[in-house]
Amino acid sequence: MTSDLELAELLVADPAVLTNIRIGYARVSTGGQKLERQLDALTAAGCRRIFAEKQSGRDADRPKLVACLEFMHAGDTLVVPSLDRLSRSLQDLITTVGDLRRRGVGFTSLHENLDTTTPGGRLVFHVFAALAEFIRELIVAGTREGLAAARARGRVGGRPTVATQEIIRAARDMLPNPDASVTSIAKLLGVSPGTLYNHIPDLRELRAAGRARHELAAAQP
Q1: Can you give the pTM of this predicted structure?
Q2: Where in the chain is CATH 3.40.50.1390?
């Protein structure tokens, strides 16, 4: 349930003072895809500068995105053609937009017509954040129930049973959070840290990307 204080915060202008500087970020996943359509849309949206790259959305190493986020200043607005160009998952999107908000940077997605500098846009992201947390809790609860049922049937479960796709997806969503250790994430999901390392080849990259975003946000005045 949203508190009166949270609702009041959604109505407050954020950033308080806009610079009217819009910075764009575009991405395509394969060499065969073209950036032109995204670049045209961002240019038409008034972006003063555009960072673009050809990189898979699952790849944690996206140097142009890192450069784009570092380039932003309080009062600026990050503009993307669509939400899936920015983030690999709902949780990753919430984390990135949350970091921008703490820095006083606005966010706009053209395709979804979302704008966090408006009360309506902030409300939508508040709902997204609540939904992401709800989904995570459902995954964790379902995983624990499944493991408990397996133990009750006398089956502890080996690696193929424990490391389900749901567990891996939940772990990938939580790994970029530097406040949660790999051990604590594994414990929460009912697996060993080794299971996560074995089933998530880019685990260290996910952790490094999360720390980089956190340090970048903390370094902002």
Answers
A1: 0.58
A2: 4-124
Q: Percentage of residues in the chain with pLDDT exceeding 70?
A: 71
* Model confidence at 161: pLDDT above 50: no
Q: Which of 56-70, 87-101, 180-194, 195-209 has the highest mean pLDDT?
A: 195-209
Active site includes 29? yes
Q: Are 218 and 179 in contact (CB under 8 A)?
A: no
Query: What topology is assigned to 4-124 in CATH?
Result: Rossmann fold (3.40.50)
Candidate list 3, 29, 87, 89, residue with the active-site label: 29
In eight-state DSSP terms, residue 43 is H
CA–CA distance, 58 with 207 (Å, rounded to integer)? 14
Per-residue confidence band for 8, with pLDDT thresholds at 50, 70 and 90 = very low
By the 8 A CB rule, do 98 and 128 touch? no
Q: Where are the beta strands (DSSP E) in the chain?
A: 22-28, 49-54, 77-80, 106-109, 114-115
Q: How many CB atoms lie within 10 A of CB 69?
A: 22
